[in-house]
Amino acid sequence: QSRERQRGQGMTYVIIEACIGVKDRACVDxxxxxxxxxxxxxxxxxxxxCIDCGACEPECPVxxxxxxxxxxxxxxxxxxKNRDVFxxxxxxxxxxx
Length: 97
Ligand code: SF4
Fold this sequence. Notes:
Number of strands: 4
Order of helices and strands: EHEEEH
Bound molecules: iron/sulfur cluster
Radius of gyration: 12 Å
Number of helices: 2
Oligomer: single chain
Largest sheet: 2 strands, antiparallel
Strand content: 5-15%
Distance between the termini: 32 Å
């Protein structure tokens, strides 16, 4: 791993609003480290577990996955949302099928 990562500060992949109510889960099937979890409303990528491989990005049918650095300006809040949801009272769990 050439890129230096610090907890909570490393670049990661982020799921944005487009996933809400969709939860297609195609991304789940290709993630090599099983770091995509299911929340009430949408799927979330665990920022500390994601290895930034990019495999999930092209699989999403609604283009909801972006590298953190490419998250659209009006979706910036989802960077924190993907991180904070794992510290909430109802953290995302293993994806349901
Ligand atoms: Fe999983 Fe790779 Fe997507 Fe990160 S970038 S969520 S490791 S498939």
